[in-house]
Amino acid sequence: MKTATHDELINEVMHHIQTDPHKGAMGLSDFILGAQDGLVNVLGVALGIAVATNDAHIVLVAGLATTFAESISMGAVAYTTTLADADLYQSEREREYRHVIEAPNLEIKEVHDIYESKGFKGELLERIVSTITANRDVWVAVMMAEEHKLSPVDRKSAFRAALIVGFSAIVGSLVPLFPFMLLSVQVSMWLSVLVTALTLFAIGAYKARVTVGKPVKSGLEMAVIGTVSALAGYLVGFLLKVPAVP
C-alpha cells in the first residue's frame, strides 16, 4: 500500500472536514420537516383568508396564530416521535437479546442467511458467522441493523429535534406572511406564492446537495408539491368567500 505524504494527508483531512463532511446533513430532515410544513400550511391559510376576506389584518392574525400554534405542535410531535423511535429500538434490542439467549441456533441461522444473501459462502461465510456470534453485543447489533433495519436513537436528541422543527416551522411560516405586512392583499397573494415557491426550491436544492440527487430536480419537486398543496387553501377561501358588505 502506498504511504501518503504529509501534504496529501493534510489535503485529505481538509477535504474530509470542510468539503465533504459526514455531519453536513445532521438535523436536515428536522429542518426540512418544520420549514416545509410552516411554508405550505401558512401559505394555504394566508391565501384562503385573503381571497375570502380581502383583509390583510385578518390574514396576518390568522397566519400568526397558525404559525405559533403549529410550531409548538410540530416541535412536540418531533419530540415524542424521537422518544418513540428510541423506545422502539430499545424494546427490539431487548427482545433480540432474549432470542440470542433462548434460541441461539435459530439466530445463528438468521445471521448465516443474511450474509449468504449478500454473496458470502464457504469458509469465509462460516468465519463471518462465527466471528459475529462470538460476541453477544456484536451479534445483537448486527441483527438490529441487518434484520430489523433499525439504528440506535439517542433520547437526548429529542429536545434538539423539537427545537429544530419548531424554530424552522416559525421561520418557514413567516415567509408567506411577509408580503401582507407591506403590500395590498391582491399583490401580496401572488408575491407570497412566488416567494414561498422560491424558498421551497432552495430547500429542495440544498437537500440534494448535502444528500443525493440533482439540486434543480429536487428543488422543482419540492416547490411544485408545496405550492399545489397550499393552493388548496386558496380554493377553500374562494368557495367560501365572505360576501361584500353593501
What does this entry look like structurally?
The protein is mainly α and 246 residues long. It has one domain (27-239). The protein is built from nine helices and no strands. α2 (28-53) packs parallel to α7 and α3 (56-102) crosses α6 (136-146). The longest helix has 47 residues, at 56-102. The chain starts with 5 loop residues before the first helix and ends in a 7-residue tail after the last helix. Residues 21-25 have low confidence and may be disordered.
How far the N terminus sits from the C terminus, by CA atoms, comes to 87 Å
Helicity range: over 70%
Globally, the shape reads elongated
| Count of alpha and pi helical runs | 9
Beta-strand portion reads: under 5%
Main β-sheet: number of strands, strand sense, barrel status?
none
Helix/strand class: mainly alpha
**How many domains, as an integer?**
1
Low-confidence stretches: 21-25
Rg: 26 Å
